Amino acid sequence: MTNKHLLKINNFTLSFKSNRGKFIALEEINLGLDSGKTLALVGESGCGKSITALSVLGLLPENAATVEKGEIFFRGDNLLNYHKNDLRKIRGNRIAMIFQEPMTALNPVYTIGDQVAEAYRIHKGFSRRKSLDLAVEMLDKVKIPDPGSRINEYPFQLSGGMRQRVLIAIALACQPDLLIADEPTTALDVTIQAQILKLIGDLQKEMGTAVIFITHDLGLVAEMADSVAIMYAGRIIEEGGVYDIFDHPKHPYTQGLLTSIPKIDTPKGGKLATIKGIVPSIYNRHAGCMFYDRCPKGQNACFTRPKAPEPFSGKHEAACHFVDV
Amino acid sequence: MIAYIIRRLLYMIPIILGVALLIFCLFTFFGDDPVRVALGQHASPDAIANLQHLWGLDKPIYLQFIDFLKQIVTFDYGVSFSTGQKLSDMFMEGAFVSLSLTAPPFVFGIFISISIALILAYYRDSFIDHMARFIIIMSMSISYLVYIISLQYVLAYELDLFPIMGYEPGLESITYLFLPWLIIVIVALGPNTRIFRTLFLEETSADYVRTARAKGAGEARVLFKHVLKNALIPIITNTVVAIPFLILGAFLMERFFSIPGIGAMIITAINEGDFPVLKGMTMIIAIMYSFFNLLTDVLYSFVDPRVKLS
Ligand SMILES: Nc1ncnc2c1ncn2[C@@H]1O[C@H](COP(=O)(O)OP(=O)(O)O)[C@@H](O)[C@H]1O
Ligand SMILES: [Mg+2]
């Protein structure tokens, strides 16, 4: 089971220490991803998407975060058992990540050529000269015009979209098996957004990279993803193939998300459906469904009885007592 | 760059004119009458008139101000009341002595503070870090004077490793300066290391550090390559502004070790009511201050590519 997937997260539970005590931030996360495929991780802000990604990379703040239980298998090995130094050799090499904030994610005092070349210097041990040559090639791949002279520019000389391209170049420099893109376009204009998404998709096909695409916008994933996992308050409440999720959403939260995506036929200025209420505070965790108080179907049973994800057709599963079958 | 520096130098002219006017007014309208101070209470009116004429104090005020401006431009501030030495010579001699007292431990001290701070940032929250922070706080809660007196007593008097005090020009000066250097380094080490450690740690939570880590950079690369260069920007601000005070010397050190630097000169001048010296020194220090401000900005442009001097 574990060896079949490129990445397999099993029963992963993570807690944070805070000044109000320990709280569970991720609970019983189960995810699987095969080579070359795309998994979309979708949920409202604060539900734990980024920390799921950082857990895979081993980049959680050491003094604050504790793994309570679970495993993260990558190519058959449990990353949680890796020594720090071995994990470092995987980061940026086999597993890479791009972040939400292209404006601040690059080091302001080094040239972009330097910063792309650094990936080759760290993982391949190439000379400065050779690394820079490869950086030029990589910048060309992410469609930065005139990369030969651009390598000497500093981040402040580039637009947000260009910076995100540089960050993609850094991430894909060593042809990783897995790219985690954490809301890569949230900070960008809509037109630039489409270009960046297309770029990621094209490079993914070219290099055969698997992608975890993190977003709060379910509307973005229909074209990109093979499978979708919906997160709510630190849990995955529904997971399935992209068609399962879009055509037969089971969980009321997923259904709510889908109706709040703007459609072409939504009249201008017309009202979009929204999910009422706010995301519950992580300090008020309980065993039942966390969506209970915002849910149109919510009943007492939801609050008191925990509900494990229940499988439907194929890999489609949802955690709800009252799904329409 | 050159054009920028020239323009900044031109901007300095009105600033320096303003400062000169301020200093001139302070000394002309508020201080004691320098002639009275020089000649004492019982001087004859003739003697007073003579001295006033000699120092140009009988001229109209605006001419006196123009004289002062001439002094600034020609770097010729007249002679000291008490020693008769030319102030510009005194300043050059004193500045050299003060700088040889303060500059070496300043540079060396910053270098070690940065190194220790990097090590502490690398081992943050470990035993070493906690111990070091404890020692730093301890060292900072002891007065400057305690360091001077106890080290002078133990190292120079009891152990006779250094001369207790005094100064001789030339190479010989090193034997006299070594102990003050040591004290200055020790005293500055705690606060500097603490500031630099905080700067480095603040920098490590920046987004670009997360990118570097995601790239596979190890902790050493993160600190020494990525963080250090960014942290140099605030470090420069913290240190270059201190340079004019180096030339002023460390008043206390010069006094305790009888080192004839600018600090000691100014204290003597205050004691003796030596107005030309005080007025000239104040003006020179103000001008120096503007120059070092400019130097800070020029240094920025070397470290931070976003700073374009134009
Ligand atoms: N370093 C941290 N210390 C404590 N809590 C954290 C830390 N990082 C994230 N969290 C908490 O974990 C939860 C999930 O955060 P995150 O994964 O960033 O959400 P998102 O889905 O928006 O990416 C949030 O409630 C946040 O407060
Ligand atoms: Mg996030």
Outline the fold blueprint.
The complex is a heterodimer of chains A (325) and B (310).
Chain A: E1 7-18, E2 21-33, E3 38-42, H1 49-57, E4 65-74, E5 77-78, H2 84-90, E6 95-98, H3 112-123, H4 128-141, H5 147-150, H6 160-172, E7 178-182, H7 190-207, E8 210-215, H8 221-224, E9 227-232, E10 235-241, H9 242-247, H10 252-259, H11 300-304, E11 310-311, E12 317-318
Parallel strand pairs in A: 3-8, 3-9, 6-7, 7-8
Antiparallel strand pairs in A: 1-2, 1-4, 4-5, 9-10, 10-12, 11-12
Chain B: H1 2-30, H2 34-39, H3 45-54, H4 61-74, H5 87-122, H6 127-140, H7 144-158, H8 173-204, H9 207-215, H10 219-240, H11 243-248, H12 251-256, H13 262-272, H14 275-303
Residues 16, 18, 25, 43, 45-51, 61, 64, 282 of chain A line the site of adenosine-5'-diphosphate.
| Cα distance spanning the termini of chain B | 6 Å
Proportion of helical residues of chain B: over 70%
Helix and strand composition category of chain A: alpha/beta
Helical run tally of chain A = 11
* CA-atom Rg of chain B in angstroms: 24 Å
Question: From the alpha-carbon coordinates, what is the Rg of chain A to the nearest angstrom?
Answer: 21 Å
CATH homologous superfamily identity of the largest domain in chain B = MetI-like
Q: How large is the share of residues in beta strands of chain B?
A: under 5%
Q: Based on the structure given, which CATH architecture of the largest domain in chain B is correct?
A: Orthogonal Bundle
Largest β-sheet summary of chain B = none
Taken from the alpha-carbon principal axes, the silhouette of chain A is globular
Which descriptor suits the 3D outline of chain B?
Answer: flat
Query: Oligomeric form of this entry?
Result: heterodimer
Which regions of chain A are unreliable across 5 or more consecutive residues at pLDDT < 50? none
Q: What is the H/E string of chain A? A: EEEHEEHEHHHHEHEHEEHHHEE
Bound molecules: adenosine-5'-diphosphate, magnesium ion
Tell me the distance between the termini of chain A.
Answer: 28 Å
User: Which structural category do the helix and sheet elements of chain B fall into?
Assistant: mainly alpha
Fold-level CATH name of the largest domain in chain B: MetI-like fold
